[in-house]
Design goal:
It is built from 6 helices and 5 strands, in the order E-H-E-H-E-H-E-H-E-H-H. By secondary structure, it is α/β, with parallel strands linked by helices. It has one domain: Sugar-phosphate isomerase, RpiB/LacA/LacB (Ribose 5-phosphate Isomerase B, Chain: A, 3-Layer(aba) Sandwich). Bound molecules: D-ribose (RB5). D-ribose (RB5) binds next to helix 3. InterPro entries: RpiB, RpiB_LacA_LacB, RpiB_LacA_LacB_sf.
Length: 148
């Protein structure tokens, strides 16, 4: 699995930390920016990452802004994206198990690295249950949105 990364200025510092973490874990990643703390617009990075995740089979994305909220709102406009902004391990885990989320939105501001590291690990390592009822619900959502 490859992780496609994106952040705005408020998520830049955490993105750099996440890259080091993924490196240590031997998880492949691609960084689509931003590459500095200079002010940027989060939808630009959300759309880039969302489109790539939908097109590159088997990939998933991590998007980071100040809260994770704006990134996830934008990413979910793209057909086939199921993005979650999680701040707790349970919702991160169940978003994979039930919703087969393919993008994780993270909070770059006021976040503890220890908590964030665990959250990423739970989200990456939880498989989709594949249950029929969950597939049916996902199919209903995936018919909506703008094509990548
Ligand atoms: C940028 O200041 C901030 O609004 C953005 O990073 C994000 O938190 C939006 O949801």
């Amino acid at each position: 699995m490859k992780i496609i990364l994106g952040a705005d200025h408020a998520g830049f510092a955490l993105k750099e930390r996440v890259k080091k973490y993924l490196d240590r874990k031997g998880i492949a990643f691609e960084d689509l920016g931003t590459h500095s703390k200079k002010s940027t617009d989060y939808p630009d990075y959300a759309f880039k990452v969302a489109k790539k995740v939908v097109r590159a089979k088997g990939s998933r994305g991590i998007l980071i802004c100040g809260t994770g909220t704006g990134m996830v709102i934008a990413a979910n406009k793209i057909k086939g994206v199921r993005a979650v902004a999680s701040t707790d391990n349970y919702s991160a885990k169940m978003s994979r198990n039930d919703n087969d989320t393919n993008i994780l939105g993270l909070r770059g501001r006021f976040s503890s690295w220890e908590k964030t590291r665990k959250l990423i690990s739970v989200w990456i390592n939880t498989p989709f249950s594949g249950k029929k009822r969950h597939k049916r619900r996902i199919n209903k959502m995936d018919r909506r949105g703008t094509s990548a």
